[in-house]
Structure formats: C-alpha cells, structure tokens
Amino acid sequence: MNALSQPTRFLFFTGKGGVGKTSLSTATAIALADAGKKVLLVSTDAASNLDEMLGIVLANTPVAVPGAPGLSVLNIDPDTAAHAYRQRVLAQMGAGTSEAELSAVREQLSGACTTEIASFDEFASLLSSDDTRFDHIVFDTAPTGHTLRLLSLPKAWSGFLAGNDRGASCLGPHSGLKMQEARFKAALDALSDPAQTTVVLVTRPDKGAIAEAARTSDELRTLGLNNQRLVINGCFHATDPADMVAASIEALGEQAIAQMPASLLALPQDRVPLRQFDTVGLPALRALLGSAPAPALQVRATADDHVDQFLGLGSLADELALAGRGLIMVMGKGGVGKTTVAAALALGLIQRGNTVHLSTTDPAAHLAVTLQGEVPGLNVDRIDPKVETQRYIDKMMAAKSPGLDAQEQALLLEDLQSPCTEEVAVFHAFSRVVSEARSAFVVLDTAPTGHSLLLMDATGAYHRQMMRDYEGLGAARVVTPLMRLQDAAYTKIILVTLPEVTPVSQAAALQTDLRRAGVDPYAWVLNKSVLAAGTSDPLLGARLNGERVQLERISGGLASRLFVVPWLVHAPVGVEQLSKLACPAHSQMQAS
Question: Is 45 a residue of the active site?
Fold first, then answer.
C-alpha cells in the first residue's frame, strides 16, 4: 500500500461495514511497527473484534501486542469511558455540594448522550495530545454512519460551547464540559490538517460499498478532512471463466470499479487482492499486504458438506408470516447483507398477503438503493437523524415554551440544539416504530452492531427510568420499548452473518449482549454462502475450508434456527431479484 510510504501521524480507516477496515488498519499498524515505528492502534467501534484478530484482551488503556514490538492497541469502550467521564464531572463539583445536587447530576449523566460524549472525549484526547510515546496512531473506526457522527462532533461541540456559557442538561454541570473546549478545538485542528491526518476510505469492488465511499468522501470534505486516499480491498480474478460463481464475482467487481464516481477516481488509490485465508493472527495480517508468506492451508474434503440440509429465506418468511403481525429486527455486523435480508423478508411477507412497514435505523441507509422500486402494501422509510432531531426540538419547544418569556425560550432552544439531542430524538423515533408492530408487520433494518448496541443501551436506560418514575404508581401497566423487544411473541430478532470467522464471532457477541438484556434472537441467516452455490475456483475453494468451519460453528450450538442464502450470480438488487429470495416457491434453498 502506497499509504505506507509517507504516513501521517493519524491514519483513519473508514468505510461501509464488512469492507475490511479492521484487517487493513491492523495490517497497516503492524507494518509500521515492523518498520521500527511506535504505533497505537485504536478501535472506535463498540463491536470491535480486534481482540480475536490479535489474540489479546482489549482495554481502555494501551495494551502491547506480543509478537509485534512497538505496537499497542486501545479500545474506546463506551461503558468504561462513560463511567470515567461521570467520575471526572462529579469530582469537579466540590466539597460543598449537597447529596441532592450530586444525585441530580448522576441522573443527568445516566443517558445515552453521556455515553456518546464520553467516547468522543476519549477520541478527542488522542487527537489533541502531545504524547510522544507513539509515532503513529491508526484508527479502526465503526461503520460509516457512526464514524461520520464521531468525526462531526469536534465541530459540533466546539460550536455549541462557543455560544453557550451555561451547559447542556444531559451532560451535567457545564464545568464538566467547558474544560474540554480546548481539547475539542485541538481535535478539530488535527483532523483538518493534511500534514497530520489521512483518511483511508476502504471499499470492496462492490457497487454499494463504492457508492458509500463516495458519499463519505464528500461528507468528510464538508467537515474539512481533505487528505483522503482510497483502498479497494478483496479484488478477485477468476481462474476458470467457466465457473459461473467465480466469473460473476469477478464481473460484478470489475463493473463496480468501472462505474466508480469521478470524485473517488481522483483520489490516490491502492488495490488489495482477495486472499485465500482469514485475516486472524499476526502471520495472516502480515501476509495481507504482501509483506510475509501466506499462512499454510489444510484443504479439507468437499464430498460431505451437507449444506443442502439448511432452508432458505422462503422458509423463514413462512414462519414469520404465521404471527400475522409483529416486529422483525434484522441485526448484525456491517456489510453482512442486513439490508438485503430485511428487504427480501419484507417482500416475502407482502407475497403472503400482509402489509409491511420497512424502515432502517442506519444513518447510512441503503433501503431505497437496494429496493429500486415501489410495491403495493409496502411502506418504506428511514429514521433520519436530522429530521428526527428537528421534529423532537419542535415538539419540545411547543410543549415547554408556553409561559416562558423570550429569553427563557432562547435558552431552552439553545439547550435543545446540543449535539446529543440527536441520540434522544433517534431513540424516540425508534420507540414509535416499535409500537407500530402491535397491529401490523414492521421490518427494521438496523444499523451495524456497535451503533445498534448504543440504541439498545438507550432503550434499557429509558426502561429503567420509567420503572423508577412509575414505581408504586401503576408500573405494572407501563409497557416500554425494551419490554416489547423482550416479548418473543411480539419481536423476532434475525441475526445476519457471513461464513467468515469475524462476522460469526461478532454475531455471537451480539447474541450474548442481547440475551443479557433479556432479548433472545429468533434465527440466524448465513448470507452469501459460496459453499451453497458451488465453485471449482482454486482460490474460492481454499476459502471454503473456513466457511465449513463457520457453518459447523453456527449450526453446532450458536443458532437455534439457521437459514442459508447462497452466493447469487445476479446481485440481489431491485424488487424483482429480492422477491425471488423469500417467495413461497423458494421454501427450500435454491442456488439460482
């Protein structure tokens, strides 16, 4: 990668989920460390899998990586960051503060927006620090929508603090935030300085991933991050043109690259070939960028895969339709095909005589691009953070401003324009969509795992608050969004994954988190199975060994129900192709 020839101090790897940000950022950090540099690799993803990839336990402080001298890893864990932030704010309140005042501040600091600002505070400290322990800091970021939110916060908070000398109620006393103003400004300066920061846009040779990279590039420029370069990961060339699966993978990739927007074509570009091994462990990560021999592979026999025993999306749609109504939440790591599966299931329910509301909580929504058409009985929309924030502000102003004078109204509006209002507004919109499933089908295409977990945290915090508020006052009659998610007759969670070690591990971790909240997934969907499609290509054949391991891992205890979608020669884009995935005629999995 040419990005390694003259690297800046800060390197941000961002892009659509599933494009290989973690693998490439980690391989880059290792290469820099192998070259004698002191490197800190930072994950800003709440659903990071760096621990599995490097075989270490992540922490909120730098952890040295055995076998890679000079490399340390740090994970910005939202819960840990929020706890530390609360302690710092409370410590500033002074000895004369009453217990009632401390209790009020603790309550103010219990919301989801405090978690966001605390995570951002950790992130900003790395950008604004003069710490000389590290020559380079490499950021492995969360999928695009969440990352754009993170990178926009330096400007948002700097602007908010500049015009506010009182503070935002959701963040506790203003002194707890005002002291960070210089840090936020330093973070913004570092991000905007091309001599200090490079943004590496990672994509795959895939139309959707490339389109998102182009949108991300444009949005980053509006934030002042102009030093960008592009990496196309997983470039594939078929060995046997007669192998339809291999040929279609190559053709789709070449077509996507050929149609790349001019804004991306203008960027410095690197291409990384598709490898025959999973990028787990130091040998594989060093081999990813061609700096070391590929790890040895043990090829397994292919005669007894039994992949045809698993049913497809048609059977899943049959089961879901029996309820007649309910919430279907499609969740998983970014890039595993959640949007495709959600859209296909929605169309499958339409085919079975139902009306469906299909929506998404993903800031980088792709539903319209995936469907490319309208269907009778299907209502499609998205929870747009900007729209929902303005709607929430308007609602709160209408409810609270009567009786206030002009100055008090101006102060109320100022507080509502805090950047953390967005998190509250999105949660309210999510709750509204969840409640619709009382009388109809609602299919919700969720944001990638980390962002969805933050939304679940907000749901849990709201539930606890409601139970406290109504304790002894009819709490038994209160129904919160969390209670609806915990009701297996009301909500069915579908976990989508790919037949690769990282997506499966993240789906398993998400399932554990959900069960901890009292929410048990209904089924797993293994998407883009080359094993189910069949191939004779040597490189793809080598990758099938890993797919067999993951298939056995899922069916051997992770999933109570497993449905398999084969790799499709024709991309599942548009109503016609999506309708084929879950139509009643496809009750048994087909590879067409």
Answer: yes
- Structural domain boundaries in the chain: 2-289, 324-384+435-582
- Is 185 annotated as catalytic? no
Full-model pTM: 0.67
Side by side, the strands of the sheet bearing 356-360 are 378-380, 356-360, 441-445, 326-331, 491-497, 523-529, 562-566
pLDDT tens column, 433-478: 888 888 999 998 887 544 445 555 555 555 555 555 545 545 455 5
Tokens coding 342: 């959600």
Single out the catalytic residue among 21, 185, 338, 528.
Answer: 21
Answer yes or no: same fold for 2-289 and 324-384+435-582.
yes
Element (H, E) at 545: helix 538-553
Segment 123-136 shows an average pLDDT of 81
18 is catalytic: yes
DSSP H or E stretch at residue 136: strand 136-140
Q: Considering 8, 14, 15, 18, which one is annotated as catalytic?
A: 18
Dump pLDDT digits (tens) for 299-357. 444 444 566 678 899 999 999 999 999 999 998 877 788 889 999 999 999 999 999 99
Q: Judge: domain 2-289, CATH 3.40.50.300.
A: yes
Quote the distance between the C-alpha of residue 306 and its chain's center.
32
- Tell me which of 8, 26, 28, 45 is the catalytic residue: 45
The CB density around residue 42, as the number of other CB atoms within 10 Å, is: 26
- What's at 338, amino acid-wise? K
Residue tagged active-site, from 15, 20, 111, 326:
20
Q: Looking at 8, 43, 115, 502, which residue is catalytic?
A: 502
The per-residue pLDDT for range 477-532, each reduced to its tens digit, is: 556 677 788 889 999 999 999 988 878 888 898 888 888 878 899 999 999 998 88
3 state DSSP class of 492:
strand
Q: Give catalytic status of residue 353 as yes or no.
A: no
Given 14, 23, 72, 114, the catalytic residue? 23
Architecture of domain 324-384+435-582: 3-Layer(aba) Sandwich (3.40)
20 catalytically annotated? yes
* Strand 39-43 relative to strand 71-75, pairing: parallel
